[in-house]
Design brief:
This protein has 297 residues and is of the alpha+beta class. It has 10 helices and 9 strands. The chain has 2 domains: 94 residues, Phosphorylase Kinase, domain 1; 182 residues, Aminoglycoside phosphotransferase (APH), C-terminal lobe (Aminoglycoside 3'-phosphotransferase, Chain: A, domain 2). Helix 6 packs antiparallel against helix 9 and helix 7 packs across helix 9.
Length: 297
C-alpha cells in the first residue's frame, strides 16, 4: 500500500461499514486529495472506491468541509446530477474524510465538434445552477459574495488592480438570484466516456451565489484550456440558456475568478506554457476592468 495518513485497519473497518462483504486490497493516490481504494467481495473481481480528504487550508477555512461535501454529494444524487455517490463520512479521524463511488471516465481536452462540446459544457453548468434551493437544503454552503472580501492577498500589481476594481464595482452591480455553484467548474473536473459525461467531481469549493460567479471563473479556465473562440462560444451558449440572467455583472465575476486563479503558473503542465497563460490572464483581466468601467461610469 502507498503511504497514507490512516491505518489499513481503520480503513478496512470503514469499508466494511459500507458493505460487510468488502475487503480492502490496496490504496493508490489518484489526485492531490483523492485516493482509490481497491476492494473486493469474496472471490469477485476488484472494484474501486474513492477516498477524499481536504487540505489544512480548506479545513481551517471550514472545519466542517468533509461533512459539507458529503451532504452536498448526497443532495446532488437526489437531484439527479452526475456526481459520485456519497458512501461514508469519517469525522473521527484527523483529517476527516469521505468515501464515494468510483466513476470510470477521463477528462476531455479536445473535441471533433467544438460548438457541440461547448454547448454541452454550458448545459451541464446550467443543470447545476438549476437545482431548486427551496427543495434542497444547502444553506450550510458559503455565500460567494461573502467570500469576495476574504480572498488571498494580492501577489502582483495586476492583483491589486483586480481587487480595487472589484471593491469599486460591487456596490453598483445588480446580482442575480442565488444558485448552487460548483466553484471549480473546468475540464479537469469533468469525467467522460466518449461524448457522454459520466460525472462532475471535486465539489469541495461549492457555494451559493450569483450563477455568473461560476461562469466567470470557468471562462478563464476554458480560455487556458481551449482558447478564446471556445471560451466565447461557451459563454454565448450559457447566456442563451439563461435569458433571464442579467449579464452586466459578468465582468465582476470574471475578475473574481481571476483573483482565485492567481497561482496559475503552478497549473502549467510545461513551463513553456506560462508566458501564453500570463498573456491570456492579463488580457482577460484588462477586458473585464474595461467592461466594468464602461457599465458604471
Amino acid at each position: 500500500m502507498t503511504s497514507f495518513p490512516f491505518g489499513a485497519g481503520d480503513l478496512q473497518r470503514v469499508v466494511g461499514e459500507i458493505d460487510r462483504r468488502l475487503t480492502l486490497q490496496g490504496i493508490e493516490q489518484i489526485g492531490g486529495r483523492a485516493y482509490a481504494l481497491r476492494v473486493s467481495a469474496g472471490g469477485q473481481a476488484e472494484e474501486r472506491l474513492v477516498l477524499l480528504t481536504h487540505s489544512d487550508a480548506d479545513r481551517e477555512r471550514n472545519p466542517q468541509i468533509a461533512r459539507d461535501e458529503f451532504r452536498l454529494l448526497t443532495t446532488l444524487q437526489a437531484a439527479g446530477l452526475p456526481a459520485p455517490a456519497a458512501l461514508s463520512l469519517c469525522e473521527t479521524h484527523e483529517p476527516p474524510f469521505l468515501i464515494t463511488s468510483f466513476v470510470q471516465g477521463k477528462c476531455r481536452l479536445n473535441a471533433h465538434d467544438w460548438p457541440a462540446f461547448c454547448r454541452k459544457l454550458a448545459a451541464e453548468l446550467c443543470a447545476i445552477h438549476a437545482i431548486d434551493l427551496l427543495e434542497h437544503e444547502l444553506s450550510f454552503l458559503p455565500q460567494a459574495r461573502d467570500l469576495i472580501a476574504c480572498g488571498e492577498p494580492p501577489l502582483s500589481a495586476t492583483q491589486e488592480r483586480i481587487h480595487a476594481a472589484m471593491k469599486s464595482a460591487l456596490p453598483k452591480v445588480d446580482l442575480n438570484p442565488p444558485a448552487l455553484l460548483h466553484g471549480d467548474f473546468w475540464l479537469g473536473n469533468l469525467l467522460w466516456q466518449g461524448d457522454q459525461l459520466e460525472a462532475i467531481i471535486d465539489w469541495e469549493d461549492a457555494m451559493i451565489g450569483d450563477p455568473l460567479a461560476d461562469l466567470g471563473k470557468s471562462r478563464l479556465e476554458m480560455l487556458w484550456a481551449l482558447g478564446d473562440e471556445a471560451m466565447s462560444l461557451y459563454t454565448e451558449y450559457y447566456l442563451a440558456l439563461n435569458p433571464a440572467l442579467d449579464a452586466s455583472a459578468l465582468p465582476l465575476w470574471d475578475l473574481w475568478g481571476a483573483s482565485r486563479l492567481q497561482h496559475y503558473p503552478s497549473f502549467a503542465s510545461d513551463p513553456g506554457e506560462i508566458p501564453q497563460m500570463r498573456a491570456q490572464y492579463e488580457a482577460f483581466v484588462d477586458d473585464a476592468i474595461r467592461q466594468l468601467n464602461a457599465v458604471h461610469e
